[in-house]
Amino acid sequence: MGWKIFLHSVRMVLDNLDVALRISLGLYLVQVAMQVVVFNATSSLPADPVDMPEGGGMPFEALVLAVLALVTSLWIAVGWHRYALEGEEPAAFLPRWRGSELGSYVWKSIVIAFALGVVLAVVGGIAVSAAMAVPGLLGIVSFGLVGLISYLFFRVGLVLPAAAVGRPLTMRESWQATGDGDKAVLMLALIVIGAQVLISVPAMIDGNTSSVVSLIYSVVVNWFVTMIGVSILTTLYGHFIEGRPID
Fold first, then answer.
1. What number of helices (H) and strands (E) belong to the chain?
2. CB within 8 A of 68, min separation 6: which ones?
3. Percent of the chain, pLDDT > 90?
4. Is 199 exposed, middle or buried, given 0-12, 13-18 or 19+ CB atoms closer than 10 A?
5. How far apart are CA 77 and CA 191, in angstroms?
6. Which residues cross the membrane (predicted)?
């Protein structure tokens, strides 16, 4: 079931690629700008940390871009949820502005991030402390923590597509709704982690994150990661909350 959910989410993007581009392309340019700023900043850093210029904090422009990139990514998510669940077509090359739904989406994203952050801090602190005593165990613990957070996010994250379509749903209700499919959600979390590892392989082989090719690869891959990630939440919501079948 977890594999079917993942494939369904990938097909959702590929089968509706034209709409996906119309919803996301204009807004994703903000994220591209942010990636270019980070790329220029990191590629211009000296190899020796001793030569680092003083006061080398994040420029104000980069901070503004980071905030805009976050808002536009959530705007993309709301637009894609609404298209997949409600059939709402984007207006030209931007999803329709839904201020109330976007505000709710932002707030619930913050709540989820805080809740998962608390879990990670508590469980992660205990697990890492224990792993430090056993050589080679730290990597396994780190992988396990990422899997745990991904699993928890998919269990409670259905509140986000619900917010996008203006329907009330609590984290408790999301958790209860996905209870019968907890094994599928766990498998889905492991698949997503595996996919992320595979995606990072070319960058690890190249070894030069300051190359233009690496930047282009990152821009393209991050777009697919964004759209497929939102599609996974949409698929989970459609199946567990609305009872839609998964092909």
1. 9, 0
2. 30, 34
3. 50
4. middle
5. 21
6. 21-42, 62-84, 105-134, 140-163, 184-205, 211-237
Rounded distance between C-alpha atoms, residue 35 and residue 14, angstroms: 24
- Written as six digits, the tokens of 186 are 């766990």
Contacts of 200 (CB under 8 A, 6+ apart): none
**Tens digit of each residue's pLDDT (9 = 90 or more) over 221-240:** 889 999 999 999 999 999 99
What tokens appear for 138 in the block?
A: 């730290």
d(CA 186, CA 192): 10
**How far, rounded to the nearest angstrom, does the alpha carbon of residue 115 sit from its chain's CA centroid?**
16
Domain ranges of the chain: 2-240
The position carrying tokens 């942010």 is 34
Q: Is the dihedral of CA 180, 106, 113, 200 positive or negative?
A: positive
- List all residues 6 or more positions away from 219 whose beta carbon is below 8 Å from its beta carbon: 32, 35
Rounded mean pLDDT of 49-55? 50
Which tokens sit at 23? 């919803």
Cα separation, 225 vs 73, whole angstroms: 12
Could you tell me how many residues make up the chain? 247
pLDDT confidence of residue 52: 47
Query: Any idea which residue has 């919803």 for tokens?
Result: 23
Using the CB atoms, write b or e for 41-62: b if 16+ within 10 Å. eeeeeeeeeeeeeeeeeeeeee
Place of tokens 């392989």: 201
